[in-house]
Amino acid sequence: MKKMRIIVSGGGTGGHIYPAMALIKRLKERDLIEDVLYVGTEKGLESKIVKNAGIDFKTIEVQGFRRKLSLDNVKTVQLFLSSIRKSKKIVKEFKPDIVIGTGGYVCGAVVYAAHALHIPTVIHEQNSIAGVTNKFLAHFVDKVAIAFTEAADQFSEKKKIVFTGNPRAQEVVNIKPNDRLKEFNLAADKDTVMIFGGSRGAKPINQAVIETLDRFEKTDYQVLFVTGRVHYDNVIKSIDSKYLNSANISVLPYIDNMPEILPDIKLIVGRSGATSIAEITALGIPAIFVPSPYVTHDHQTKNAMSVSKVGAAKLIPEAELTSDKLFQEVNDIMSDAAVQQEMSDNSKKIGVPDAADRLIKVLTGLVNK
């Protein structure tokens, strides 16, 4: 199979960047890359992540449209046009066999420029509600890869749509159970619930957990409570110090390489971002989702509904989250092995453990064509 020269572009949030990185990693594992270039923005999260991974990185300058009429939108259009010109220059110099965009404003210019230069193009939509950039690009690209079947309704170009899943799923599926829980002063062989509100944490989730610690301490399972770095100090001040020395509870600001501990987790409580769902369903971990109501088009609720409707997860709207509700839902699952098994089986049914290979098949199909 021919090795590819590939340009990858996606930015703004980890949900756009981590699937792109997982794809690149898998392409390298299969020795399918001759050369790879990542195009992002200097200010975006991708700048740090991609550079740290040692991948060639170039930048363009773009910004999103304001929802209200604003002079900033004039600048947005000007930046977009100049970013297309710069993207064309980058594409011509790199000479890719294919270009893939994984979302965020930055990939709009890069993928459109590649299309204008008659380079094969693909976009990958991670969420159940398509982003504005991907909706725009769908009119021009050769293929639209999706991770939720519900996303198909967001695009009019039905013949272009291919269900691949999210490459992050394949990145975690082969991780084996290990003893990493010992690092957090928890027993490696005890059933564990992880409560985690995303990399920045979620104040409403944290508050509900704080009010439930007295009950969690008395259960026959243990709780790994990850507050998020920005909330950690306030959480520590808010709780009784006895919980910091509890054999049943561990309170942390963040966990590096979190996917490594997922095989040792019996239940996850947290947000319903696309990357989290890809990882959870690939491993078949039951979940309780508290979707963030602050994201575009409330897509986290739609993501969570996609998983909960098949019996793989429970959904608690943030407005309905209380300490009593949280404890009841967690305890109902953790006290019933049959329920855990059923949710795990249902989760695996919708997981896509070969997602990266499915997406690679789309790419190689276009290149070889």
What's the β-strand tally? 13
CATH-defined superfamily of the largest domain: Glycogen Phosphorylase B
CATH topology of the largest domain: Rossmann fold
Strand order of the largest sheet: 3-2-1-4-5-6-7
The first-level CATH class name of the largest domain: Alpha Beta
Radius of gyration: 21 Å
- The shape is elongated
The main pleated sheet reads as: 7 strands, parallel
Please, how many helices? 14
Question: Any guess at the CATH architecture of the largest domain?
Answer: 3-Layer(aba) Sandwich
Order of helices and strands: EHEHEHEHEHEEHEHHEHEEHEHEHHH
Low-confidence stretches: none
Mean pLDDT across the residues is: 92
Q: Note the gap between the termini.
A: 12 Å
- Strand percentage lies at 15-25%
Describe this structure as you would to a colleague.
By secondary structure, this protein is of the alpha/beta class. The protein has two domains: 181 residues, Glycogen Phosphorylase B (Rossmann fold, 3-Layer(aba) Sandwich), CATH 3.40.50.2000; 171 residues, Glycogen Phosphorylase B (Rossmann fold), CATH 3.40.50. Helix content is 42%, strand content 15%. The protein has 14 helices and 13 strands. The strands form two sheets. The protein has a seven-stranded parallel sheet, with helices on both faces. The mean pLDDT is 92.
Question: Which properties best describe this structure?
Answer:
15% strand; 6-stranded parallel sheet; single chain; UDP-N-acetylglucosamine--N-acetylmuramyl-(pentapeptide) pyrophosphoryl-undecaprenol N-acetylglucosamine transferase; cell shape; alpha/beta; Rossmann fold; cell division; 369 residues; 2 domains; Glyco_trans_28_C; elongated; 42% helix
